[in-house]
Each structure stands twice: as C-alpha cells, then as structure tokens.
C-alpha cells in the first residue's frame, strides 16, 4: 500500500464489505439493545415486582453513608445481558444448523496413525515395523 497515504488506506479500509457489514451489525445491535431494555423495564421488571410482592426493582438499593448502591438497576442489567446472550446464542445456533444443512456435515478424515500393540506408541498407519520398539506390525 505504499504511495496511497493515510487517507487512501482509510478509504480502502472503509470501502471493504466486512466493515460495512460490521457497521450494520452495530446499528442493529443498538436497536436490539433498546428493545431488550424495554422488554426488561416494561414487561419483565413489573412482572417480577408483582411476584415479589409489589417491589419496583428500579427503586431497590442500599444506602451506605451518603451513597446509594442501585442493586435493582444492576439486577435489570443482568437480566438484559442474559436475554441478549440467549438471543445471540439462539441466532448463532440456528445459523450454524442452517449452514450445516446446506454444506452437510464434514466427513471425518481417515486415520493416519495406529497404536503399536507391543509398546503402545503411536505410529504411521502404513508402518510395518514400529520405530520405537522395532516390533513387526503387519
């Protein structure tokens, strides 16, 4: 890339397809994060609050001195993380299953080694004599 300069290299980098795909993924990920946050804050949080006897998790906290430790917000962040991780895992699992159906399962390679019955060393599959104990392996 000699002679292109910094700006030329940057333009080439930005124009690559995988960079554009990544940018799209970041935008979609941000939108998905907003949906998950709404799910936790507006649906799961209130349901857990009712189950726990009317507790609003956003108001749960511990006051130490003059500082408040917002445990409820932390619990909601954990729930957000678990939901995002579960969805990402499910999407990747479905993608891998679809790719496997399309490409087929990879065949296992034929073994290239065997075990010497005398010294239990690993030797070439075509060996007629063990290089470790010199026994004949037909």
Explain what this protein looks like in three dimensions.
The protein is mostly helical. It has two domains: 5-103, Orthogonal Bundle (Non-ribosomal Peptide Synthetase Peptidyl Carrier Protein, Chain A), CATH 1.10.1200; 109-138, no CATH class. It is 57% helix and 9% strand. The chain has a two-stranded antiparallel ribbon. A hairpin with a 2-residue loop joins strand 1 (62-64) and strand 2. Helix 2 (17-51) packs across helix 3. It is extended, with a radius of gyration of 29 Å. The chain starts with a helix and ends in a 14-residue tail after the last strand.
Quick structural gist:
The chain has helices at about 5-15, 15-50, 70-105; strands spanning about 60-65, 65-70, 115, 120-125. The protein is mainly alpha-helical and about 140 residues long.
**Hey, roughly how much beta strand do the residues contain?**
5-15%
Number of strands: 4
Enumerate the spans where pLDDT stays under 50 for 5 or more consecutive residues. Answer: none
* Class inferred from helices and paired strands: mainly alpha
How many angstroms does the end-to-end distance come to? 57 Å
* Mean pLDDT value: 82
What about the largest sheet?
A: 2 strands, antiparallel
Q: Give the CATH H-level superfamily of the largest domain.
A: Large-conductance mechanosensitive channel, MscL, domain 1
| CATH class call of the largest domain | Mainly Alpha
Approximate shape: extended
Tell me the count of domains: 2
Topology order in helix (H) and strand (E) letters: HHEEHEE
Determine the number of helices (DSSP H or I, runs of at least 4 residues). 3
CATH architecture of the largest domain: Orthogonal Bundle
Helix content: 55-70%
């Amino acid at each position: 890339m000699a002679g292109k300069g910094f700006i030329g290299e940057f333009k080439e980098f930005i124009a690559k397809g995988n960079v554009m795909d990544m940018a799209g993924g970041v935008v979609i990920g941000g939108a998905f994060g907003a949906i998950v946050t709404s799910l936790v804050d507006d649906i799961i949080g209130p349901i857990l609050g009712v189950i726990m006897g009317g507790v609003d998790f956003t108001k749960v906290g511990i006051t130490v001195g003059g500082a408040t430790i917002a445990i409820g917000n932390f619990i909601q962040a954990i729930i957000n993380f678990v939901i995002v991780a579960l969805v990402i895992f499910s999407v990747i699992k479905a993608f891998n299953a679809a790719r496997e159906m399309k490409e087929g399962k990879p065949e296992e390679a034929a073994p290239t080694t065997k075990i010497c019955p005398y010294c239990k060393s690993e030797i070439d599959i075509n060996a007629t004599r063990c290089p470790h104990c010199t026994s004949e392996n037909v």
